[in-house]
């Protein structure tokens, strides 16, 4: 297998086509990229901004340039020696009439050849939850009619511009009579004859008849566990692999599949042993990928969490917590708040999925243990408590049983629930555990297997929507830690823990992707690196927030349900704005402030709705949202000059220290175990907010026009513009291609600096045979140096890096300055940092 030395993620759509990507290939080659990593490129719904709503997995999307455009891009990649990794979506497709498989199912119901392609409960009519109100109210309002489908000419039930195809047997031979129907009773009767029924989108959480992706009704689960479905859904992509056009695959949301291991084994067999495969999988604290999955690792969310241990000041965690609690007016209990979020999700957003599991469990209990009675409420409570208590995304039990590691995990979770303050009925809980372990009669094995599969497919979305998309928009202490793959209550950051995580990464998934920005992260990597610095000065930050709240107090509106924004939300607004503030934006730059305002207000709206406290996507509280957005807009009003001057002045040292963090973060990613992934545009500064902000097309003209000059004169401008970061990336990525074995399989050796500034360095070595490298990078510089200075070589005097015996007596060249070092037993950090405050030394 050819392991990538690095990847570059490109988001197709929004102006990015195959031909546009082809023009970037020479630049990616110069940057040192080995593989272009493409977002989904197969046909998706009209106007799709991301491509995960696939409508045809066997067609290149025409909006990207179709087959011909793909061939031109492929040829450009091959001419420059770059490979291609595709992001594929086996878990779901768009439940859109643009999807020919889905349309056929809607038209023919269970008689469709694709009826078993989708995860549909055919014990009832297919639900189509796309009405603005109930069917009866929509019909009464005259919004439903019978007319000829403009694409097929066949009779259809029309709701505004959408034409739902009627089952042919309900109109065969009487097309004209059906098309002339206008009476509401006739339309209702015809609707009742269909294999589907239209309903309000609000009823989906309770009544949906198909498995969806998380809580998105527009995405329907695909049954790739069926060999026929697998073959049809992967026909084109596997052809591309066999043709040598595609070298690797990224599997979207692998935990949504019925049996991830079986899927990956089937994919590996079909794609062959040389295809690089990684999965989108969020690992909990201490969790590892199953060893028997035939893949190279994850897409790297856990790498972000590991990095925070190197760059956050864990010694001041309590001080920051106290400062936040003083503003918010309440003590934080992340785990209890996570429980509340999970309960809300289980009771509302995933009500139908929980109810279906409860019904199945009761049916199994009636057969398996009719000597005792468990009523519906008791079973529901036990099921809900177990779901809520799950600390990881899922277990991986199958019809053949549950892996030993998952048996142990399940046992521990059940025990914690039994002994916890919310313990449900023991008998009900024990019976659910029996089902999950397959401890039922052989005649009930299929039902137990279905229960297990559905349970395992639910714990992941429940965790994701409760933690990433709820709690992380409620807890604002340090936004940089509210990231995909992070924990609700992570332990205090520790450099020791960072080194442990890197050793673990080398052992379990040395060839996994190492990402710092993705299309799904909550903020860009440089915004996160900047916000890490708040952990170094919690008192300074708290004092600043107090001043700013006073300055803008007149903008707070008193509503019936409380102040808007409330104090905790004010803390969040100032912190989010601090992370996104462009390094060169001045208070007098009216156009720049307006551009930031547009992005910031979109973020604020999403953050408020995701928090689901005083407003939400389903129940919009317009007065509250308007008040908070008006407050946020005032922060960027040029007339609010006193605040803006104070904000920019206060932020200056945090910006400088954040830039240092950004380079250290980048260097760690480039040389630590794993394959560094560069998200489009993040080779310069990435100060983006949550999607869709982080999916904006970068300025490729500016990026591709840059050379390696960022290292020739390391001044403040090169730091602030991101030119230094881009140059560092290019230099190291090209080195990775020259020394592939060192980076792919080199050992990881944590180094321990000593001296005055020892706590302000992160350092480690990689070694493979006679080849070795030493990374020395600064950390926590806000607290160590005045104003978070970026070039402070003289301040490192007296700090040394002792070297293990295997690394002594070698000749090293520092790759950015070209200077040669021949250390005996230790390396002088001050001398090493003479040209710039970071170093990467490689043995010659």
Automatic annotation (TrEMBL):
InterPro entries on file: GH, GH13_cat_dom, Maltooligo_trehalose_synth_4, Trehalose_TreY
Where are the bilayer-spanning segments?
none
Give start and end of each Glycosyl hydrolase family 13 catalytic domain: 6-438
Which GO MF terms are attached to this record?
Answer: (1,4)-alpha-D-glucan 1-alpha-D-glucosylmutase activity
Q: Name the domain of life this protein comes from.
A: Bacteria
Q: Per the UniProt entry, what are the Gene Ontology biological process annotations, in alphabetical order?
A: alpha-glucan catabolic process; trehalose biosynthetic process
Please identify the protein, giving its name as recorded.
Malto-oligosyltrehalose synthase
Query: Do you know which SUPFAM superfamilies this protein is assigned to?
Result: (Trans)glycosidases
What SMART domains is this protein classified in?
A: Aamy
